[in-house]
Specification:
The complex is a heterodimer of chains A (about 240) and B (about 190).
Chain A: E1 4-13, E2 20-30, E3 35-39, H1 46-53, E4 61-66, E5 69-70, H2 76-86, E6 87-90, H3 102-112, H4 117-130, H5 146-158, E7 164-168, H6 176-191, E8 195-199, H7 203-206, E9 211-216, E10 219-224, H8 230-234
Parallel strand pairs in A: 3-8, 3-9, 6-7, 7-8
Antiparallel strand pairs in A: 1-2, 1-4, 4-5, 9-10
Chain B: H1 3-11, E1 16-17, H2 18-28, H3 37-49, E2 53-57, E3 63-67, H4 69-80, H5 92-103, H6 108-135, H7 139-177
Antiparallel strand pairs in B: 1-3, 2-3
Helix pairs in contact in B: 2-3, 6-7
Classes of the chains: A alpha/beta (about 240), B mainly alpha (about 190).
Chain lengths: ~240, ~190
């Protein structure tokens, strides 16, 4: 079963001499628990790809399947429903609601899915516990560090068993070590079966992914999967 | 890497045998730098000659080494002095790129991309080792791996910069060759 299947997707904006090909014949497939990082210079199509993957935008060619469902056949309402059920988003800013506690922020996402408030709160607290964030549940976003806010935002994005997590530079504003704790949390979600697509300029964070794909001028320009093992690195002379 | 100072550092916490120093060194550095026993004894011999350690022969004929006051001073100086950056490190990659550009035999963009993929792969491996080191709470090994991560990151960022410079130059060359069909002041912004 694939969570996300992008087949020869293209996205063209404008027409005539203002026509811009943002994505050109890009295919990408993710199974449950798979973590893919997308890298490339500004304007290479990373964010367009992420918007397509999350059903926020539609391709002008090719097709896109979310958990086996072709998004082309869905009207806006149906697409919105699939998006809510299947996809969680995390951005550079955590965007937590400041008047709600961390746990209430997470519970709100469940309530929007139709879960009763009390059950939503229980679910939110359970998830925060499992992510090592029990201590921050009762605090307001203003009382949390940037790293804590971002981890709560990830909890909010994956609550309710969403199968796909899309993250656009989630570590942008964080220091190196805090950024790593966020990456660790993404890995942990993968281990729990969630597929993750991370768009980033930061190659240190991209290296946490199972696969790193490179975009250049809207096309796939290469992919780095896991190599044979650490011995290969130690044999390259980089260490000495 | 300074075997000499590493041995002094190990001896600063107490006297040790040569073989013990070898295994302690390798354990502390996560086996990244294997030391042969010969290298350890040669270095200990020089440290002894320079008065930085003293050796005592035990009943079974084994030598046990102890750091001296001068040895502790030397170790202190080592910690107090920043490690000098190599003035001209051998940069095979830089040389390769320069010649790829000059010779016209290779596609520079492909050379860059192949290198980037290889470096990111290496980075993925180190990142996995880091996760394991974090799990085992192995601080010395973690610090070492962090160093490797940032080196690889620096290389990838440099490759990105090379690529961006080449792209800019190619655009400039292309614009100069043909009369622009689009007025020069109109630029098309990409959406992403």
């Amino acid at each position: 079963m694939t969570v996300l299947d992008i087949e020869h997707a293209g996205r063209v904006f404008g027409s005539g001499h203002l026509r811009v090909v943002a994505l050109d014949d890009v295919s990408l497939r993710l199974g449950p628990g798979e973590f893919v990082a997308v890298m490339g210079p500004s304007g290479s199509g990373k964010s367009t790809l992420l918007r397509l993957a999350g059903g926020l935008d539609r391709p002008t060619s090719g097709r896109l399947l979310l958990s086996g469902r072709d998004l082309a056949g869905l009207n806006e309402a149906a697409l919105g429903a699939v998006r809510r059920q299947e996809v969680g988003f995390v951005f550079q800013e955590a965007n937590l609601l400041p008047s709600l506690t961390a746990a209430e922020n997470v519970a709100l996402a469940l309530e929007l899915d139709g879960v009763k408030p009390k059950a939503a709160m229980t679910g939110a607290r359970g998830l925060l516990d499992s992510l090592g964030l029990a201590a921050v549940g009762s605090r307001y976003p203003g009382q949390l560090s940037g790293g804590e806010q971002q981890r709560v935002a990830i909890a909010r994005a994956v609550v309710g068993g969403r199968s796909l997590l899309l993250a656009d530079e989630p570590t942008g504003a964080l220091d190196a070590l805090t950024g790593e704790t966020v990456m660790g949390l993404l890995r942990q979600r993968c281990a729990a079966g969630c597929a993750v697509v991370l768009v980033t300029h930061n190659v240190r964070h991209a290296a946490w992914a199972d696969r790193v794909v490179f975009l250049s001028d809207g096309r796939l320009a290469g992919e780095a999967g896991p190599a044979a093992g650490p011995e290969c690195l130690l044999g390259t002379g980089q260490v000495r | 890497m300074s075997v000499r100072h590493s041995l002094l550092a190990l001896l600063s916490s107490g006297p040790m045998h040569g073989y013990g120093l070898k295994t302690e060194f390798e354990a502390a550095t996560g086996d990244v730098w294997p030391l042969n026993v010969g290298q350890v004894y040669t270095t200990l011999g020089r440290l002894e000659r320079d008065g930085l350690v003293i050796a005592e022969t035990e009943a079974d004929g084994q030598k046990v080494y102890e750091i001296t006051g001068a040895g502790r001073d030397e170790l202190g100086r080592w910690f107090d002095t920043p490690v000098p950056r190599e003035v001209l490190p051998r940069q095979e990659l830089a040389i390769k790129l320069v010649f790829a550009m000059r010779s016209g035999v290779a596609d520079v963009a492909e050379v860059l991309q192949r290198q980037r993929v290889a470096t990111v792969r290496a980075l993925q491996d180190v990142t996995r080792l880091k996760a394991a080191a974090e799990f085992n709470d192995d601080l010395a090994w973690l610090l070492m791996l962090d160093g490797l991560v940032f080196q690889a990151e620096a290389e990838v960022r440099w490759l990105d910069m090379c690529e961006a410079r080449l792209a800019r130059r190619n655009i400039a060359a292309g614009v100069a060759r043909r009369q622009p069909a689009i007025p020069a002041e109109r630029t098309v912004e990409r959406s992403s």
